[in-house]
Amino acid sequence: MATLDDLKKRIASVKSTQKITKAMKMVAAAKLRRAQENAEKGRPYSEKMNNIILNLSSGISDKENAPKLLSGTGEEKVHLCIVLTSDRGLCGGFNTNIIKKAKVYFKKISNEGKTLKIITVGSKGYDQLKRVYKDDIVERISFKDSKTINYLDAEKVGKLIIENFEKKEFDVCTIFYNKFKNVITQIPQEQQIIPLKTLEVEGNSSDDNYEFEPDEDEILSNLLPKNISTQIFKAMLENSASEQGSRMSAMDSATRNAGEMVDKLTIEYNRSRQAAITKELIEIISGAESL
Amino acid sequence: MSEEFKIEIVNPEKSFLSKEDVTEVVVPAFEGEMGILKDHISIISFLKPGIIKIFSKSGEENYYVEDGIVEFKNNNLSVLTSSIFNIKDIDKDKISEMLTQAEEHSKNNEITDQNKYLVDQKIDVLKTLN
What we know:
The complex is a heterodimer. Chain A is built from six helices and six strands, in the order ααβαβαβαβββα. Chain A is of the alpha/beta class. The longest helix of chain A is centred in the C-terminal third of the chain and has 74 residues, at 216-289. Chain B has two domains: 5-86, F0F1 ATP synthase delta/epsilon subunit, N-terminal (ATP Synthase, domain 1), CATH 2.60.15; 92-129, no CATH class. The interface between A and B is medium-sized, with 28 and 24 residues. Strand 6 (211-213) of chain A pairs parallel with strand 4 (43-47) of chain B, so a sheet runs across the interface.
């Protein structure tokens, strides 16, 4: 049995851990609010962009000559996967969930005999994937230095993807990230961005004919690369909100668990203290009796 | 019948500007400046570096943009851009900094003709602001 002194030390250490997790929870809560705001503010842009592309692609007359970013290369041999994770740990299942989702997809790809290429954004994703998929990772990006999520970072990733696409390095591109639903629920997502899956809206009558300046093809081929960056940016915003939310709930339960542990240890401490006193009393009494 | 329509300018980070009482907007479209009034035909176009002029009841506002897309539909004008500044807020130092950057970019021989055209446009616009 642990001595009284040991128990005392343990209680103290659990208490100080609790203080840390509590502080981390507070910080995450404050950051979460900002990240959530940013994610909401960023939504109109990507929605509008999507709308315009939808309108454009439904209006395109010549499907054969549509830009490759929209229609694909016609093959599906090489798959590029962008895995967006955080740079920091201690956020519960946040990174693991993305990786899990991605790994299922990776397995499917390799079972079908297709080539896999991975780009990791955020260092935690790389750490978790390097053991199994080291040879497939073509690039690792981390934005540790930028304090906030900004569009320039997303654009860098977008440009990299497009460069590779133009070099015909891959045929299909999918991004993995966590969609922020609420503080306790984040849903891992896989989203195909090349070729773009246009959501076929039923009854999407394109009778509102647009006038294009310059012509549709040129607009579309200029717009699609931008859309990639926008999608990545959206994923990054969702991800950062999810990360903070996940961390907040993880730290909340850690704080609670630490509290429970302190309670349990305190009871144990008191019991053994009492046991020691009782033992001493018995010794004294039986000593006095024997006289 | 009022002659007003709605404008919304969004950049990736947030909704930059939203106004309901706009009477005329002049945008630097890719193939030349374009004035938009109420009941304009639905149109989608690109922007080149230039100045967006917004005329409303509360007066005239000028914004500098570098790129973007403009969509007009059902008397809603949406401008999507990644770089926009209100000319009132932008200071001279920033302008000259951007100007030197653009000039360096223009001297680079490797850029395509289209990019060169855009950069030259940018230089022209920045010079008028300076």
